[in-house]
Amino acid sequence: MHTIIKCNYGENFRNLSLPCTEREIQLFCDSLALPNDAGTQIRVDHSHNNPQVDALLAGKEVRLDELNYLMKRLDSFDEGEMNTFCAAASGQKLSSLKDMINLTFNIHCYSLVDDFSDLDRLGKNLYLNFMGSVPTKEFSEFDGKAYVEKIMAENMQPLVTHYGLIYENGNQPQQVYNGRTFPAYWYEPNPITLGITYKGDTEYLYLPVEKSELDKALQRLDAESLDAVTWSVEEHSLPENLTNMVIREQFGYSALNQFAAVFKNMGNREVTALSELAAFAKITTSEQLKTLADCMYEFESFPGIHTAEEYGRYMICESGHFEYDENLADYIDFRAYGQDKISRETGAFTDRGYLLYHGYNQEMQNILSQTIGLKAKEMPEPQELKLYMPLNAVTYHDENGYGDLYQVDFEIEVYADELAAYEDEIRSAMQKRMHDGESERGLMKYYGHTDTVNAKVRKYVFEVEEVRGELMGVAVLTLNAPLDAAELEKIKETIEGQCSDGFGEGFEQQEIKCNGKEVYVSLWDAKDWSLKTAAEMGISEQSYKMQFGGM
Length: 551
Description:
The protein is α+β, with helices and mostly antiparallel strands. Among the domains are: 166 residues, no CATH class; 155 residues, no CATH class. Helix content is 38%, strand content 23%. It is built from 22 helices and 21 strands. Strand 15 and strand 16 form a beta hairpin.
């Protein structure tokens, strides 16, 4: 559970939900005009939702990064571990975050007795806490009552807390945290972890990280720059072939951080798919891998298919594209069909099978030409396609006879012709809804199918445009090649989903200030909703400035 803490800086305060990300820390610091560095301090006023944390931290001046690290440690505890931690901290009257962080690594050294109603169960749980793990048979046969009596006999002066009695159980506490550099702790999965060392001290970077995280790690090490430290990869979760290209080349921190961002954004399943695709396409260098990662959804692979006849047989008999009667096998020329299909595709046979490239990335084609002998196709100029939809908008402000606005507790519809006056405000609100990682492909980032639609639609974003005096929503598509009827229908279905449940769901909850009142705009709720091309609308498309991110 995240803990919401009221934090003070001078006369100002903000609520902060902890643990949090570096970006959230940066926003918090910006809101209080605080520097975001390793020494940034705030005062904990109180916790809104966690009385245990409130009892430990209320009124303390703390370093913000140290507080966030502690809250990450506590967030991993179950109820029993949290109670043991709080009891030990309370009983020992710990006041510094350094001591509290060290205690989080040493709760196995303490046993909390908080319920004497079942001594056998209590003793078994205390023994499990002491040992860390116990075989099932040993645990079931263990005499918990005798173990409790032993602990109490050996600890005649337990610490008395309102959580119960705290006993030292024989495990020796270790100082893991020196008060300056944070111990290694994987709060959440990350693709690559770096250890950076300076004068015997080590900090850990859980890539991908923000620049401010690197800067603060260097500050805690008292190192002037990354050039002054030694660094190495401590942990990673990459398949072997990606490890060879990304880790073992050791070609620089920035490149590793960029790759880590790509891999984290993908998730484990997609990273595995990228690894398999790289092996299929004989990708061997990090530069080739960067391009492949950008284009991975534009491929289709057919493992074990090594000849035109095998390809033709698979397509006719197994792909599901045809109704196949096995009694007709002697009358079908599978080889001829396979050769004809291959002649109209951009593909190549490899030692793993047949690899088909649906995309139009010239750099990718050049790489495939080198690695698997793919014959490149001519690259068309990007094209633009617009799909128009009606908007629905409401406000909770009405206007009196003098032209003054006042708030009401019911919806008032804002008609499309009035919305046209707010075109700039609504467009700006749409652009603010774009997330990191969407600059390259827009909302196509979430398409996720390996097919010709993914290859042909390079990018799409939402816009607004005045049509016949009324403001309409527009999905602006950047195309590598024209869509056929089936592809157009499929991308329409995808965009409809974004209007109703994805981008549109969040956008319609966003208040947009328009001429003194707040307006809420929906891409989906309009009466007689439709998604049409300019031709279907009977209008001419206005030009939209294409933006291709990093291309």
